[in-house]
């Protein structure tokens, strides 16, 4: 085990540290976080629209009219269906902040570049016709929602890189000092913005004469589909949690690092489920692996599913240190915050506790995936339940009001307890012995002093 720790220290930590500090991944992570409040707000309306109460639909129709559900879900379209737009602005804004250039201008230019790259065509079936044709129309909702996430992120990074390089080379229009700062900044962004939009426009014209036809098609074929297939598989989920736990074991925020890469994939898979669920709550949902799969069923208590560990320490530990730590960690753990345990026991760089810390999430991924794949448990419905929602409640909400989601969380909690328990007892015995030895030494020193 000492050799394993040395490998982590010498090889994993340096690489993971560089990844954690990589500005583009940080910008993607922070840009996606910008969209989360909107998704949670939209999810609240989804929950209200599909409450699993007998006679609920009839009662709502009686009081609010036949089309009550369509009207109730207006905010869903205003939140989920603009996800790529928000991410396009957010990623560029955060990346520009790291380069210390005007972030507001960078975000606006990125948003314009994304819309320029998006074909304004929508499918249309004329009355009486058998074939669907593409016609020019407004901004297509399918591309500004989750399906456009990858294009939004790529163009946000590319446009901001072009923007900041032109700014840093001072190829800008400078206005006299007496001009208001806001006006001066808008003119500073004029040349970089024209350069970005010019590049995107030319590339779009080139793509339109190729079999790919658009940015969205080329990204979907070359990037989105392969990554979604991997990220949505059992193997991909196991690899992801293994990396998260290894990074946490070295003291790095594994969820943030891995989430910066895999987050967009899981978010897209979540929204695919949401669209199917919104059309028919009883339909078979396409994806098991989504953002909620990890947040709500695997990381009960935070990365490593440490809520069971906190409760066990509080109830069963003999060591005063661990019992007090359990009392301290139980409240944050209920809301899936695990730093008190990760750094307080500590689990970081602890050869004994790293074993269950890595093993528990892997086992929970396998158990949860099999339970959902076989139909024993409902799949995540696409409702963006906040990751801080206590378990049992979150499982019920995230499956669209299915009790099986809560039952699986309870099962996972006890699986985590069973795996952690023997390792905790060994660690507790060591800590209790250390406290006993310290007490003996202190008592001896006190006796010597009194003589």
What does this structure look like?
It is built from 21 helices and 2 strands. It has helices spanning 2-20, 23-49, 56-64, 68-72, 74-77, 83-99, 103-117, 141-144, 149-168, 181-188, 190-207, 215-231, 234-249, 254-279, 291-298, 307-316, 320-334, 339-344, 351-373, 393-398, 403-450; strands at 121-124, 133-136. The radius of gyration is 26 Å and the shape is globular. A two-stranded antiparallel sheet has the order 1-2. The chain has 2 domains: 1-23 and 232-443, no CATH class; 79-225, no CATH class. The mean pLDDT is 86. Helix 12 (215-231) crosses helix 14, helix 13 (234-249) packs antiparallel against helix 19 (351-373) and helix 16 (307-316) runs antiparallel to helix 17 (320-334). The protein has 451 residues and is an all-alpha fold.
Main β-sheet description? 2 strands, antiparallel
Tell me, briefly, the overall form. globular
- Total DSSP E strands: 2
Distance linking N and C termini: 46 Å
GO molecular function: transferase activity
Domain PTS EIIC type-3: 8-423
Transmembrane segments: 32-53, 73-96, 103-122, 142-163, 183-207, 227-244, 251-269, 296-315, 352-372, 407-427
Function: The phosphoenolpyruvate-dependent sugar phosphotransferase system (PTS), a major carbohydrate active -transport system, catalyzes the phosphorylation of incoming sugar substrates concomitant with their translocation across the cell membrane.
What is this structure, in a nutshell?
The protein is mainly alpha-helical and 451 residues long. The protein has 21 helices and two strands.
């Amino acid at each position: 085990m000492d050799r394993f720790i040395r490998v982590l220290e010498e090889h994993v930590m340096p690489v993971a540290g560089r990844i954690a500090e990589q500005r583009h991944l940080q910008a993607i992570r922070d840009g996606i976080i910008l969209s989360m409040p909107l998704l949670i707000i939209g999810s609240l309306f989804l929950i209200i629209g599909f409450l699993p109460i007998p006679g609920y639909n009839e009662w709502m129709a009686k009081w609010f009219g036949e089309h009550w559900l369509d009207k109730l879900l207006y905010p869903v379209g205003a939140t989920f269906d603009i996800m790529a737009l928000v991410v396009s602005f957010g990623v560029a804004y955060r990346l520009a902040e790291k380069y210390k250039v005007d972030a507001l201008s960078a975000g606006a230019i990125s948003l314009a570049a994304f819309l320029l790259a998006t074909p304004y065509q929508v499918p249309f079936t004329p009355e009486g016709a058998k074939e669907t044709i593409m016609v020019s129309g407004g901004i297509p909702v399918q591309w500004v929602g989750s399906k456009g996430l990858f294009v939004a992120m790529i163009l946000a990074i590319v446009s901001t890189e072009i923007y900041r390089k032109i700014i840093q080379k001072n190829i800008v229009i400078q206005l006299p000092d007496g001009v208001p700062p806001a006006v001066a900044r808008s003119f500073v962004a004029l040349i970089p913005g024209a350069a970005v939009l010019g590049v995107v426009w030319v590339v779009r014209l080139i793509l339109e004469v190729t079999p790919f036809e658009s940015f969205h098609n080329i990204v979907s074929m070359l990037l989105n589909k392969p990554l979604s297939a991997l990220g949505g598989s059992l193997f991909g989920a196991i690899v992801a949690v293994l990396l998260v736990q290894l990074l946490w074991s070295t003291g790095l925020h594994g969820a943030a690092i891995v989430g910066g890469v895999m987050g967009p994939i899981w978010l897209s898979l979540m929204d695919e489920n949401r669209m199917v669920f919104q059309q028919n709550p009883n339909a078979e949902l396409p994806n098991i692996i989504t953002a909620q799969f990890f947040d709500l069923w695997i990381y009960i208590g935070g990365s490593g599913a440490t809520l069971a560990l906190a409760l066990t320490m509080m109830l069963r530990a003999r060591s005063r240190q661990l019992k007090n730590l359990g009392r301290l960690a139980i409240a944050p753990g209920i809301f899936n915050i695990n730093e008190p345990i990760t750094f307080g026991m500590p689990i970081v760089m602890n050869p004994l506790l790293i074993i269950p810390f890595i093993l528990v999430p892997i086992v929970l991924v396998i158990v949860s995936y099999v339970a959902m794949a076989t139909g024993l448990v409902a799949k995540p419905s696409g409702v963006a339940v906040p990751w801080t929602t206590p378990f049992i409640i979150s499982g019920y909400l995230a499956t669209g009001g299915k009790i099986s989601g809560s039952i699986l969380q309870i099962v996972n909690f006890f699986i985590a307890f069973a795996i952690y328990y023997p390792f905790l007892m060994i660690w507790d015995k060591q800590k209790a012995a250390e406290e006993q030895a310290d007490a003996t030494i202190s008592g001896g020193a006190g006796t010597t002093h009194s003589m």
